[in-house]
Amino acid sequence: MSRAPDGQVRLVILGRQGSGKGTQCALLVDHYAIPHISTGDMLREAGAAGTEFGQAAKAIMDRGDLLSDEVIVGAVQERLAHDDAAAGFLLDGFPRTVGQAEALAAIAGPNVVVNLDVPTDLVLERMLARGRADDTEDAIKRRLELYEEQTAPLVSYYDDRGVLATVDGVGEVDEVFARVVKAIDANVGS
Ligand code: AMP
Predict the structure, then answer these.
(1) Which helix (H) or strand (E) holds 36?
(2) Which is nearest to 115 in space by CA: 12, 9, 190, 17?
(3) What is the pTM of this model?
(4) Residue 92 CA: which ligand 1 atom is closest?
(5) In angstroms, what CA-CA distances link 58 with 20, 65, 93, 142?
(6) pLDDT tens-digit profile of 98-113?
(7) CATH fold of 9-188, please?
(8) Phi, psi at residue 35, to the nearest 5°?
(9) What is the CA radius of gyration of the chain?
(10) CA 83 to CA 89: how far, in whole Å?
């Protein structure tokens, strides 16, 4: 296991829906013993709990739209304040806009950002095959549009800050995982 000199892996993973990000996240949190903070999971839990907030969030998610930066930043800030996130974390699905990335920088900036790179045709194939409840074709299309518009700019945002590692996401799960770990260890030092 590798650690940054300050003992922390503060990891953000970027990748479109269908990039294999979820699978890699499950392996990464185990490998680095850090909490998996997925804003999508947090919102789906709120939706399942049926609170007023959860219902409003679910309607937005079902359309494939994004919640406001203000709401989502508040939820992430609260989650990062928990004890288990003090020694590092993996953020999955956040930040999704430059505004969110700027807010995160003021809370706990990442020291490594993995961009899981998978070609569009493969992403589409995987997404249509898996059929999650909020995966209608329209919602998928909308999410991809928003990804290009709002989230893709984060690649250069983090590249400019010297923390970006783009990893080829095509291949077997183990193969991709080995590439991701190598990229993280090279970025955070061991
Ligand atoms: P995900 O599981 O990351 O694909 O997220 C599912 C849905 O939750 C997204 O399509 C958005 O509607 C919402 N969501 C998750 N994370 C964010 C975020 N960082 N900002 C805004 N909306 C989000």
Answers:
(1) strand 36-38
(2) 12
(3) 0.92
(4) 3
(5) 23, 10, 16, 15
(6) 999 999 999 999 999 9
(7) Rossmann fold (3.40.50)
(8) -70, 145
(9) 16
(10) 11
- Integer Cα distance of 102 and 99 in angstroms: 5
Q: Which residue from 170, 183, 74 is spatially nearest to 123, judged by alpha carbons?
A: 170
- Please check whether residue 177 is in contact with residue 186, taking contact to mean a CB–CB distance below 8 angstroms: no
The total of other beta-carbon atoms located within 10 Å of residue 142's CB is 15
On average, the pLDDT of the chain sits at: 92
Helix H segments across the chain?
21-32, 39-49, 52-63, 69-80, 98-108, 120-130, 137-146, 153-160, 173-188
Cα(151)–Cα(93) distance, rounded to whole angstroms? 10
CA 155 – ligand 1 centroid, Å: 18
Nearest CA to ligand 1 atom 14: 40
Give the number of the atom of ligand 1 that is nearest the alpha carbon of residue 68.
21
The mean per-residue pLDDT over the stretch 72-93 comes to 96
Q: Token digits for 10? A: 């503060």
